[in-house]
Amino acid sequence: MIVGKNMLARQTSLRFSVYMQLALDGIAAVVFLFSWLASIKPYVVILGLMLLSLANTFLCGHYLLRDLKRHLPNEEYQRLAARYFPYGSHWLWVLLQYRQLRDVTGETGRLFLRIWLRTMGLIAGSMLGIYLLFLLLMFLL
After folding, report:
1. Cβ-count burial of 139 within 10 angstroms (0-12 exposed, 13-18 middle, 19+ buried)?
2. pTM of the model
3. pLDDT tens-digit map of 48-84
4. CB under 8 Å to 103, separation ≥6 — which residues?
5. Which end of the chain is more exposed for a tag (fewer CB within 10 A), N or C?
6. Segment 2-23, tens digit of pLDDT
């Protein structure tokens, strides 16, 4: 059963959000390095990277709903969609009702919710890191 869970976790669309956030982190590191070496303050670039990270959180909500639709039985997905996804793929709505969703879904649904919550934590931590590094860079220059 563990092999099945790991294979299912690798098939999720959420991995693209992780890859995107890692790419944004790499771009932010390069921007920080160049701005530190050139003694400039890259306000616009960092703001753009933060907005792209925020857009990535919205994509995570979309990917979660797509993965649930693809991997859950149709009856279970229809029941969840009717009750918990009335506004579409808004990640904040899913985050606010995470505990209720976790309690009413099956094992596969709980696996996807855990993967989604970890991905959202990675993105939020990354955004916080970019912001704090930018503040540090701003005070050093």
Report:
1. exposed
2. 0.77
3. 888 888 888 888 888 888 888 888 888 888 888 777 7
4. none
5. N
6. 445 555 556 677 888 888 888 9
